[in-house]
Design a protein that fits this description.
Length: 214
């Protein structure tokens, strides 16, 4: 079940509570991805984000990274399903900063405004997917939930179709999307034609058998 926004009130922890939470968290970690508490009260740790992207992304080569203008080194393609990325972040990093860091790690040239971060959690034998606001702090949510990803996991998605910021796409990106759609449409059309050709052939064979004199 998808929930549009996270609606639960947040209970902010004291420094002592954070220290205790981190100690408890680290004692339960099984993948060595522990959290570290700094003297200034800021803590660092790891989160895993599953990429659930339906639309193609535009990836730039390392040579063209940092350029604002579109280049020939940019390619649009679909990210494989189930791709999971691990990020090392701090308790001060917001959802928007996490999205930007993910895109930078993948060398994605798309505008971060096209994407949203969700949290997926289990409550009363049901799975809920909640869209997080840009001001949320993912590491805090990870700390409170504990290290078990089956209890809480993060998912990167595009904004829903009705809320896509089409003005955030460049002209080359939009043209790439059209080319991909044209290719997919042609592939589906060929499959459909082949299916009906086979069906027609079998019908003609059946009719030939019925009308065969004998």
């Amino acid at each position: 079940q998808d929930v549009e926004k996270e609606r639960e009130p947040h209970v902010y922890l004291s420094k002592e509570e954070i220290k205790e939470k981190i100690q408890s968290y680290n004692s339960s970690v099984t993948d060595k991805l522990k959290m570290t508490l700094n003297a200034n009260g800021i803590y660092t740790g790891f989160i895993k984000v599953q990429m659930e992207l339906c639309r193609p992304i535009t990836v730039q080569s390392s040579q063209s990274q940092g350029r604002c203008a579109p280049s020939n080194n940019e390619t649009a393609f679909y990210l494989p399903d189930g791709c999971v990325n691990t990020l090392h972040i701090s308790s001060t990093n917001t959802v928007r900063e996490v999205i930007e860091a993910l895109l930078k790690k993948f060398l994605v040239a798309d505008n971060p405004a096209k994407f949203a971060l969700y949290k997926r959690c289990h409550k009363e034998d049901q799975v809920y997917t909640c869209k997080l606001s840009d001001r949320e702090h993912p590491l805090y949510l990870r700390l409170v939930a504990g290290p078990r990803t089956e209890m809480l996991s993060f998912v990167l998605r595009e904004h829903e179709t009705g809320e896509v910021m089409w003005e955030a796409f460049s002209i080359p990106e939009l043209k790439n999307f059209l080319r991909i759609l044209d290719k997919e449409e042609n592939e589906q059309l060929q499959i459909l034609k082949k299916r009906y050709a086979t069906y027609r052939e079998r019908l003609e064979e059946a009719l030939g058998g019925v009308w065969k004199p004998g």
